Every structure is written in C-alpha cells, then in structure tokens.
Amino acid sequence: MGRVGIYKREGNVSLASFGIKFKKDKFGKKVDLTKSLSQMLPYIVTATAASALIQPASFAWVRKEYYAPALGGIMLSIGIQLSVSDFAIAFRRPLPVLVGYIAQYMVKPVLGLLVATAFNVPSAFAAGLILTSCVAGAQLSSYAAFLSEGDTALAIILTSITTITSVFVTPLLTRLFIGSVVPVDVIAMGYSILQVVIFPIMLGLALNTYAKAFVNKARQFMPLVAMVCTSLCIGSPLALNRSQIVSIEGFKLLFPVLAFHTSAFILGYWLPRLPWWRQDEKVSKTISLCTGMQSSTLAMLLATQFLGGSHAVPPACSVVVMAVVGLSLGSFWGKGNRVRDLGNSFYTRNEAYT
C-alpha cells in the first residue's frame, strides 16, 4: 500500500479524526464544522495581513514577548489531538513518513538557500527566509490535507515528528546554512523550541491521556484558539515592520517567498512519485502540502529572538503565502480536481476559440 491511511479506533477521539463535529443543516445534511472553519483560514490570514499593513495599530500592541505564549497555544491545539498509539502508525508504514521527512528537512532547506541566492535577497531578510525553510511542518498542513481528501493521518504524523525533532534539527540546519551570515546559538535556539513547542505538545498529550473528559469539551474550541493565536503571530511582525515591508525591498521579497513555496509544493508532490518511492496520489498530495507549508510562526519567534527584527519579515510574509496557496490547493484537490486538469482545461478553451 505504501501509505499511512486514515483510521479509527474505539474510545477517545483519535488524532486522525481531528475531533470533528457534525451538525445537520435545515435539509438534514451533515455539516462538517471543522472543515467549514478550515475553509475560512485563507480569508482570515489575508484579512489579518491587510489589517496589519493598513492599520498597524491593530496589531502593533502585540509585543514579541507574546509570541511564545501565542505559539504555545497553537502547539497545545496539536497536543490535545495526540495519543501514544498514533505514533505506532509511523513504525508500521514508515516509507511515506521517511519521504516526507526527507522533503521537509533535506530538500526544503536547500531550496530556501537556492531561492535566497538566486533572487539576491537583501541581507536584512536573507537569514529569515533561510530560517523559514529549516523549521518544522505547519499544523495548518494537516487541515490542508483534510481539505484535499489526502492522507490526513500521514499529515498529522509528519507534522508531529518534524515538530518534535525540530528541537535538534532546526538549530543544526540554521547553523549550517546561515551560521556564517548571522551568529546562531544552537543550544539557546534548541531550548527555546523546547519551551514553546515540545512542552505544550507534551502537555496536550498528557491531557488527552489522563483528562479525556476535559479534552473532549475543550477540543471543539481549539481550532478557534489556534486561529486567534496564528492571527496574532502573523499580524504583529507585519505591523511592527510595516515600513520595511511596503518599501521597494519589501515588495521584492514577495517574489522569492512565492517562488520558494511554489517550488516546495511542486517538489513535495513529485518526490514521492519517483520510481524508487512509487507512492500513490493521496500520499503525493499530502507530502506536497506538508512540504510547501511550514511553521512560519515558529520561524518568526526564532528570528525575533536570535536574528533581529527585520529577519522576522520573511516568515511573516511566508505565513500569508503558504496559508493562502496551501489551503487553496487543498480545496482545489478536495473538489476532485487535479493539477494536470488545469493544463487540459486551458488547452480546451484555446481550441474553442480557434
């Protein structure tokens, strides 16, 4: 089979199910509230970015001291979805996880360095862009995989494993790729990741194991908590660095960020299709979304703490681009479309006009 697959188990709601709640509309049809909320995320992210740039005061009050608690809230929303048995899937079918991990921590950091070099990104932003390519997969990629009707369990496992191992991998990759440009304290960066990522996830896992009644009630509110925390983490760097973003150099940054994410989505899709991997369509869609979407909020926090304020601008721009493109791509796939259909549709329209 070569893929993780979606599964269910008795007892407490599993990781793969997202704690999804269904209600019925007036016609008696089931309405998936989690999916409906997820479909709003690109618009919320775009509205947050527009508000921060047009009215900076709306987010300028969010000081960098608030980033860690906000990011911790996002990670806690992941943690309460986890159970120990969820990780057993990775050991039973490790190949898709391995391919996704290679795409995340080998292909993407090299891609970030190449893009920064090819576009001659200004030194004030270059390290932040490369750092963005070295962080773990975004929790938002799990929502995107859910929307795309891909391998949702694989997406969450990849997000969890890359996030947990980021305490070691991200500082080392950062030191390797940008250590010669900006001094990087590997130990301090690892400790920061431990505080804002690992501890909240472990807390959520413990709650899901020993306080299931509480978790079952809290789970339905966690997507909203994650959404608010994400908005705060996006809006603040955009508002505080508005003058640099709306400058000519800041405008030029949009193209390398867009090129980075577009290339990551493409490479993430085709890497599992190589002859020696031979993964199916669901796995390819999922790894594409997990590769093109990373935890830019974590990159913003690390850039602010260790690289300087201006280096938090690329991760802030990255959050907007990867959320809009990734969730739109997930919705496109979820409607039964394929990327190759775009070319066929374009060709058909051209024939109609000739």
From TrEMBL:
<dbReference type="Pfam" id="PF01758">
    <property type="entry name" value="SBF"/>
</dbReference>
<feature type="transmembrane region" description="Helical">
    <location>
        <begin position="98"/>
        <end position="119"/>
    </location>
</feature>
<dbReference type="InterPro" id="IPR002657">
    <property type="entry name" value="BilAc:Na_symport/Acr3"/>
</dbReference>
<feature type="transmembrane region" description="Helical">
    <location>
        <begin position="283"/>
        <end position="307"/>
    </location>
</feature>
<keyword id="KW-0472">Membrane</keyword>
<comment type="similarity">
    <text>Belongs to the bile acid:sodium symporter (BASS) (TC 2.A.28) family.</text>
</comment>
<dbReference type="InterPro" id="IPR004710">
    <property type="entry name" value="Bilac:Na_transpt"/>
</dbReference>
<protein>
    <recommendedName>
        <fullName>Sodium/bile acid cotransporter</fullName>
    </recommendedName>
</protein>
<feature type="transmembrane region" description="Helical">
    <location>
        <begin position="153"/>
        <end position="174"/>
    </location>
</feature>
<feature type="transmembrane region" description="Helical">
    <location>
        <begin position="67"/>
        <end position="91"/>
    </location>
</feature>
<feature type="transmembrane region" description="Helical">
    <location>
        <begin position="253"/>
        <end position="271"/>
    </location>
</feature>
<dbReference type="InterPro" id="IPR038770">
    <property type="entry name" value="Na+/solute_symporter_sf"/>
</dbReference>
<keyword id="KW-1133">Transmembrane helix</keyword>
<feature type="transmembrane region" description="Helical">
    <location>
        <begin position="186"/>
        <end position="209"/>
    </location>
</feature>
<feature type="transmembrane region" description="Helical">
    <location>
        <begin position="313"/>
        <end position="333"/>
    </location>
</feature>
<feature type="transmembrane region" description="Helical">
    <location>
        <begin position="125"/>
        <end position="146"/>
    </location>
</feature>
<keyword id="KW-0812">Transmembrane</keyword>
<feature type="transmembrane region" description="Helical">
    <location>
        <begin position="40"/>
        <end position="61"/>
    </location>
</feature>
<feature type="transmembrane region" description="Helical">
    <location>
        <begin position="221"/>
        <end position="241"/>
    </location>
</feature>
